[in-house]
């Protein structure tokens, strides 16, 4: 989704034009007001005296518009349009200011509609979904219009648009459609003003009606106070590093993480705020994304990790349900609330198709206890942690097959791959052939090893169960020995990307190997070999490490997972390099990422194209990248942790700060031209 303006607040977001309008588009440029995976406003089009006004300036808070004019006949009035998003609502204030010395009357019209489209319908993948029994209605109210959507007897949603003053009249916008045009005739005194307040409140299926949001200024003040409390809480990254560019990237990342927090209920119904994966398509709880995001932010915002663990404990699998891949103890991959999920037309209502969220849950649980020094949460979630361990051995395959494995769920509409590289074709041989069967992907085995080691520590020190601790320590040692035997490719001095269903090494050279440095499953000599290999030019672009080394048959710099550059992937690798004592390599990758952040106004995108600095001095955007995106936002925090661990932060790890600034200035100059 590419919107000129993106307003986000507590799980509600609006994607709009710079004029503040919504046109109801689909595909990569989808706009609208969204909550709980549905579009609750699909049109919000302002006209004045029968024409769309001209834009003078636009910002996140609103815009300034005028009717057409010339130098000799300047516009008669100006419209100052303020907008903000509150939980479940869009609020707008329009102030008309007369520019002339005589009174005038302005006819303002606002075309509104709500199509209640599911986000999965709107994405640019050309899929269509049958909706038997769907029924849209709209009816005028004294102060606006109300839209209703029903499907059968089990699904209903509504959106109410209200205005003060009420519209003078309301008329249909389309032949037979639900769109309405609200019309006002506003009297403007000489050099005087007139005001119009608008509110759109969404009531998704099975959700309570949101409170009245108040004015845009009121909403912004509340949100700024909330965001500021999160961003400026201690410890502050700026106080922990002398590298100014890293501090700025951390601050932007914290601001984005604050926006991406969504409400969620814990195991006892307690109110939580967890990091959603990203905007626009992933403003929902995602197990893997929320866990890694919380791990990156853990030393600085441990409360986020606690909320994530509680939310995932509340949604942990309890039964066998093949339709959504639920199994007892398994940690959820994705939670959705939309119509298509409700009717089972997509499997993602509560979908468990992730092989790595469960071990990462255990990793974060122990890390939270270690970083905070407080074992209370690890003690409270002991039953969930033990269930997660048993899932790894039982259904995950660690006990019977020796590794955590998965098979494709694509035939039923689910995910082809269940590791973080979850796109079709991401797990492939170096000649481009797709790996098939029950796949054991390398980094997942590293997570499993780390989870066993850490959970053994919890069993010994928190749960007071030395017998379980010994069992898990022994299982970890066995997994480590097995992995080094089965995955290591001596000819490449590098681990295989995966084992396929016939236990053949999937021989692609992939960034997943860098995650093994973080988990500790490799031996010291192997760690050094991998760390140095990842910094060679076919992997390292100057901005980050590619998902696949260039030159291999499946490499493509504009592929989602076969040659692109993911900041969060690099963050895990930098943490691993720091853990292995590869200080120079960790600093090199960190500098590349911060260089990229500087060229994106300090906000790292979800993913960048795999082109290197020799191809272009600035990172080439990946066409469908989400922004902001949670684990990319948390990446600078992971870099800060890694550099502090290598004791380089106080010794100017930026190395080429002036080079970063020079490229930033040049990029801005080119943009200005």
From TrEMBL:
The organism's place on the tree of life at top rank: Bacteria
Range of residues in the leader sequence: none
InterPro entries membership: 6-hairpin_glycosidase_sf, 6hp_glycosidase-like_sf, GDE_N_bis, MGH1-like_GH
Listed Basic and acidic residues bias regions: 658-673
Renumbered residue ranges of the record's region Disordered: 156-175, 644-673
Database matches in Pfam families: GDE_N_bis (PF14742), MGH1-like_GH (PF22422)
Domain named Putative glycogen debranching enzyme N-terminal: residues: 8-198
GO biological-process terms attached to the record: carbohydrate metabolic process
Domain Mannosylglycerate hydrolase MGH1-like glycoside hydrolase: from-to ranges: 443-597
The protein's name: Glycogen debranching enzyme (Alpha-1,6-glucosidase)
Species the sequence originates in: Streptosporangium subroseum
């Amino acid at each position: 989704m590419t919107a000129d303006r993106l307003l986000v607040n507590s799980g509600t977001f609006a994607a709009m034009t710079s004029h503040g309008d919504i046109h109801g588009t689909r595909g990569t440029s989808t706009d609208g007001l969204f909550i709980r995976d549905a579009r609750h406003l699909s049109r919000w089009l302002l006209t004045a005296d029968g024409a769309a006004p001209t834009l003078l300036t636009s910002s996140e808070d609103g815009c300034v518009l005028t009717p057409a004019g010339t130098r000799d006949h300047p516009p008669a009035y100006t419209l100052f349009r303020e907008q903000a998003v509150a939980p479940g609502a869009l609020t707008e204030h329009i102030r008309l200011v007369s520019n002339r010395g005589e009174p005038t009357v302005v006819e303002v019209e606002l075309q509104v509609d709500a199509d209640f489209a599911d986000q999965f319908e709107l994405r640019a993948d050309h899929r269509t979904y049958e909706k038997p029994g769907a029924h849209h209605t709209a009816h005028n109210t004294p102060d606006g219009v109300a839209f209703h959507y029903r499907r059968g007897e089990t699904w209903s949603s509504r959106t109410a648009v209200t205005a003060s003053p009420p519209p003078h009249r309301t008329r249909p916008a389309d032949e037979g459609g639900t769109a309405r045009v609200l019309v006002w005739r506003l009297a403007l005194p000489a050099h005087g003003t007139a005001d119009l307040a608008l509110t759109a409140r969404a009531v998704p299926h099975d959700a309570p009606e949101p409170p009245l949001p108040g004015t845009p200024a009121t909403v912004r003040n509340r949100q700024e106070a909330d965001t500021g409390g999160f961003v400026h809480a201690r410890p502050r990254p700026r106080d922990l590093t002398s590298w100014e560019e890293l501090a700025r990237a951390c601050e932007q990342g914290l601001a984005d993480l604050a926006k991406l927090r969504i409400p969620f209920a814990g195991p006892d119904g307690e109110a939580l705020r967890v990091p959603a994966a990203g905007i626009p398509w992933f403003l929902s709880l995602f197990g893997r994304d929320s866990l890694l995001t919380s791990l990156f932010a853990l030393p600085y915002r441990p409360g986020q990790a606690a909320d994530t663990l509680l939310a995932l404990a509340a949604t942990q699998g309890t039964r066998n349900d093949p339709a959504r891949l639920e199994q007892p103890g398994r940690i959820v991959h994705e939670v959705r609330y939309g119509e298509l999920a409700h009717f089972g037309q997509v499997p993602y209502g509560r979908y468990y198709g992730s092989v790595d969220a469960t071990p990462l849950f255990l990793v974060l649980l122990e890390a939270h206890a270690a970083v905070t020094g407080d074992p209370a949460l690890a003690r409270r979630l002991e039953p969930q942690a033990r269930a997660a361990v048993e899932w790894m051995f039982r259904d995950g395959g660690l006990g019977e097959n020796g590794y955590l494995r998965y098979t494709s769920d694509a035939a039923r509409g689910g995910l082809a791959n269940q590791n973080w590289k979850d796109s079709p074709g991401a797990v492939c041989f170096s000649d481009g052939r797709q790996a098939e069967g029950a796949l054991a992907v390398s980094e997942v085995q590293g997570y499993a090893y780390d989870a066993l080691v850490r959970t053994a520590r919890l069993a010994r020190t928190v749960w007071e169960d030395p017998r379980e601790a010994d069992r898990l320590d022994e299982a970890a040692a066995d997994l480590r020995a097995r992995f080094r035997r089965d995955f290591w490719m001596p000819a490449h001095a590098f681990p295989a990307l995966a084992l396929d269903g016939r236990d053949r090494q999937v021989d692609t050279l992939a960034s997943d190997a860098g995650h093994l440095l973080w988990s500790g499953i490799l031996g010291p000599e192997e760690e050094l070999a991998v760390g140095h290999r990842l910094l060679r030019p076919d992997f390292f672009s100057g901005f980050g490490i590619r998902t696949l080394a260039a030159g291999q048959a499946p490499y493509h710099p504009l592929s989602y997972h076969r040659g692109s550059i993911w900041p969060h992937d690099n963050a895990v690798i930098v943490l691993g390099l720091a853990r292995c004592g590869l200080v120079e390599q960790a600093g090199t990758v960190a500098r590349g990422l911060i260089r990229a952040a500087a060229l994106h106004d300090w906000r790292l995108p979800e993913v960048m194209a795999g082109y290197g600095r020799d191809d272009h001095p600035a990172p080439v955007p990946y066409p469908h990248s989400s922004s902001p995106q949670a684990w990319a936002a948390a990446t600078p925090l992971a870099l800060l942790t890694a550099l502090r661990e290598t004791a380089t932060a106080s010794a100017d790890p930026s190395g080429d700060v002036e080079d970063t600034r020079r490229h930033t200035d040049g990029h801005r100059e080119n943009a200005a031209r």
